[in-house]
Fold these 4 entries.
Entry 1:
Amino acid sequence: MEILVAAEALRVPSAVDLAAIVIGALTGGLLAAREGFAVSGVLLLAVSGGLGGGLIRDVLLADGPPVAMTNPAYLPTVAVTAAVTFYFSGWLSRLTRLLVVLDAITLGFFTVIGAQKAQLAGLPSASVVFIGTVTAVGGAVIRDVLLAQRADIVQPGPYNAVAALLGATALTVLAGPLGLPPLPVAALVIVLVAALRVLSVWRGWEAPVALDLPERARSRLVARPRRRRRRR
């Protein structure tokens, strides 16, 4: 009974869910249009951007057929979005700033949807964080694979997977051990993820790269005696 109540509390409104899918599909479709892809390529990248993360999530959760296949509105919505990007790609490309903000909000929504579904499945906290992050960035990974290029999330640049990871972690802690109400937690996490994404683009923040701590410590130890000698 408690799980059913939680499911009702965590249910994302259909309009919000479809809006997130539309923005994801727009991002993928616009990229395909810029690359000069045929209509099939635009449609394929729109599907990966709008539904890719959810498909990966549902396959990992193994909870029946993926929602993208069972919900009658998802695929038609992506198809219409792909058609819009195919015929109006030039006009949409001028809305770069708006698309960045909408994409950031979508990243937050997908993070919350994935993490909450993992919680309802009774998965441990680490798995909830993983599913939330994968749901948010899975579509981008599929898109980059289709483009035969290195996945954007593994390269230095504005926060993407990092923002989703922090958001999913915050949701897991706030809705798990702290036991806060799910809807306020969801809203807070969406704002957190979107803000991190937008600020990283605006301020030029980049995800941290691998460090060689022993080498860095050795370099600092060598540099200190040199500075002391110069002062003398």
Entry 2:
Amino acid sequence: MRSIIAIMLFSFTATGVMGQDGAVREGNKLNKEGKFDEAVAEYDKAIARNPADRTAGYNRANTLARKGDKPAALESYDKLIAATTTNSTAKDIQERAYYDKGVLHQQQQQLDESIEAWKAALKLDPDDKQARENLQKALREKQQQQQKQQQQQQQQQKKDQQQDKKNQTPPPQSRLNQKQVEQLLKALEQKEKEVQKKMQQKGGSPNKPEKDW
């Protein structure tokens, strides 16, 4: 994966060759020295003098990225993309801005945003091999995340089903067995009564007195 720093160094070289605004050259120099705030101020001067200076806008966004201010860098990329025309030179800068947006989003674990940024970059430059490789990696990672989420959902559903079974009332068969037990007890009580009755009947009438001879 090409890094943001590598892209910035290329743009700095290009700006020097093209004879850009002196503020842009000064901004490039300060950027290389690690004086990011001062570099941004120089790019702002160049943009104020020439709002159409896309190189100044691009280098400004990259400087913010190097500084670590990713939200500001993303905002700068978006402004640059929105303001870029369709001529070939501006189109090249716009493609780089989309690519770098993808890198920043990836660094912040914003997978969907990085995918969209690299798709946009490839629409402008289908031959951008690194953008294509990054997009493929991001899509594979997205697929893996979806599969993991699906597995977690299935596991949770299984746990919920098991809990539901535990919370359910006893099945009808358990109630039927209880009823049978009650009937059996009643039958035993009835049988005991019958046995007692038979025992009383075996005793017969009282013995008669012996015959008096």
Entry 3:
Amino acid sequence: MVKPFDEMPGIHKVVSGYTGGWKEHPSYEEVCSETTGHFEAVQITYNPDLFPYTELLSLYWQQIDPTDAGGQFYDRGGSYKTAIFYHNDDQKQLAEESKKELSESGRFSSPIATQILAASPFYEAEEYHQHYYKKNPAHYNRYSIGSGRAGFIEKHWRDVNR
């Protein structure tokens, strides 16, 4: 989820990590064990004058299968479910509106499963997870294609300028 946002104008920082659970400072292994309640997530620091929150939402929807309630592509389980974590009432309202618009757009035949949740403490992932797509480009690209993510995005979003 880092790559699509990483070099956009107005995006200052994208950090991989975990949020939404109860375990403080979880490790990747703990999160993947489904015992912490956390989601794998990214925390994005951005300039809203250059990259508005609504654009963050739009780009986010274009990176996921929002109808999959059991994870994402090859990655299965609660830690891989999709969610938007909001920090204030404005973000919550905009997220709910964007979800409703996507649901009513007819782009997907199944219901939108992505949750909209209040932000909770965010814990940075281990260093080897940060900017994984840059550190391991061959594996990242193979996974994107092999998992079906790249094809899914092309099928559902080819008409959108990215």
Entry 4:
Amino acid sequence: MTTAAELLEVSPVVPVVVLDDVDHAVPVARALAAGGVRIIEITLRTPVALEAIARVRAEVPETLVGAGTVTAPRHAEQSAAAGAQFLVTPGCTDSVLDAASATGLPFLPGVSTVSEAMRVAERGFGALKFFPAEASGGVDYLRSIAGPLPELRFCPTGGITPDSAPRYLGLSNVGCVGGTWLTPKDAVAAGDVAKIEALAKDAAALAG
């Protein structure tokens, strides 16, 4: 993996995963991979996130593991040190853009307006996260900006469901979507890897 653009082609759905117990990281990643989804975004919303990234990188080599909710320069540095293979932010500041770029990792900067997208594009980024997708106008919004910003492609995340995902994936400027539904909190807590694998198979099938 060398570019952010390639991240958008790995899977139609990128699982956005919140882990409260580091011991769940590897089983969840393996279940997703068994279902055909070999990418995982572990959010930096819990104290175990960095260790979870390190474990998945070491024990599930077939899966690309990234860090999400990167909101400060130190997050980019810590994530890279933990072994993250890509970074995702909910929004952007110059300091976060600089720190993420300095890691050399593929990076999806988050935007929610045309001005933000244009500003990030000026910095050389062509693959972006659109967040929060549903709250920011969803499918209609992304369709409307495809004309004036044809060079940009997006991974919309936030409020997307299995029902709405195909509508996003049908847009010319969307490469994939981010979703939390592949790893429901109750299934993760219960160690229900069969459910996670089944949800991953359904998500992988959206590529067709």
